[in-house]
Amino acid sequence: MPVTDVEQDLDNLTLTITADFAAPVERVWQVYADPRQLEKIWGPPGYPATVVDHDLRPGGRTNYYMTGPEDEKYSGYWQVTAVDPPRSFSFADGFSDEDFTPNPELPVSENVFTFVERDGGTRATYVSTYESADALQKVLDMGVVEGASSAIGQIDGLLAS
Predict the structure, then answer these.
(1) Mind listing the pLDDT tens digit for each residue in 125-145?
(2) Which candidate, 79, 42, 82, 49, places its Cα nearest to that of 62?
(3) Other Cβ atoms within 10 Å of 131 Cβ, number
(4) Contact 100, 91 (CB under 8 A)
(5) Which end of the chain is more exposed for a tag (fewer CB within 10 A), N or C?
(6) Across-strand partners of 91?
């Protein structure tokens, strides 16, 4: 499992996941830059993602949905705020309805994904910041740590293929 650390900080409203991969930074970057590769890892096992639109540049938007084991769909979006290939990108990640209209009843996280060379591979740091402790607690209760960790766990298989 590539995830090496998970920190939940209710005071600073952040969830930070750290993972190490035995692949160069440029290769790990491609997992997120290529929508077909992103589909293979964005949803946790059993909830594959379908990326409908993917515009990884400042101001760009990614629309996606995950399909559950009984064909239920969970839609979401990224609103990209900054991109520094292959080192980092930032985006708001929110829940949406089926036509990708943001769902204001569910939390939106501000995310910074960073990739740095480490021991010939890549250390990825995923930081999600929420607007309130209640918003962070809501996604924690929804299983975000388990879901994100298992989704990130799929990257090793993709990198090996």
Answers:
(1) 999 999 999 999 999 999 999
(2) 79
(3) 12
(4) no
(5) C
(6) 80, 111
